[in-house]
Amino acid sequence: VFPSLAQAQASVANEVYQELGQPSVFLFCPTEYCSSLCSPSPSQSCYLQTIGQELLPGIGIIWTGPKVVSQELSAVLLEEVEAVLRRSPVIWDNLYANDYDCRRVFLGPYMGRAPGLMSRLHGLLLNPNCELQANFIPIHTLGTWFRSELGSCAHPDRAGVEAVAALGDSQGAQDGSYSPQDALELALRDWVAEINQQALEPGR
Fold first, then answer.
1. Whole domain around residue 61: which residue ranges?
2. Considering its fold, how many domains does the chain have in total?
3. Is 80 a domain residue?
4. pLDDT tens profile 6-27
5. Which of 26, 64, 87, 117 is deepest in the core (most CB within 10 A)?
6. CA atoms of 13 and 3, how far apart (whole Å)
């Protein structure tokens, strides 16, 4: 029926999206969901070109970055992806994912994401460690990063000073920029407080 996989996927996704009444959040994960899976590149991929052209504009498209687990996300790469998809991508961030190797647990701060990235995104999802308690620092530092991004977007001329400062000293860097080390220290402080609080609960 369809001349290509991309056209088949776009047709089915569009039909489901319309049948559901075009919900405000409807996400599509393409077969080529990172640069390393694209042939020969995102901008020259016939598959992604078709997806970008055929998929209805209200449908968000998931992207993981240069690789399935991307150490860095840059504005330059996102510009290329945005152009071929004809919309800002939804980043599905696998920075902390360990389902592919459960011997590893990732406890460092959220990092490797270029400043000002949020303005180029339709959304961001964080794929966490499989172990629940190991995600305190990842999620806490993601929150600090997100607040700094909101501050920068609200006050590009002041790098978000007022917006971030208004959130309180513990919520982000006071100059509006994100520091992974500062974010890690904030997360560790709050995590210790959380552990101590749990230790005082009856039955612990």
1. 5-154+179-200
2. 1
3. yes
4. 999 999 999 999 999 999 999 9
5. 64
6. 16
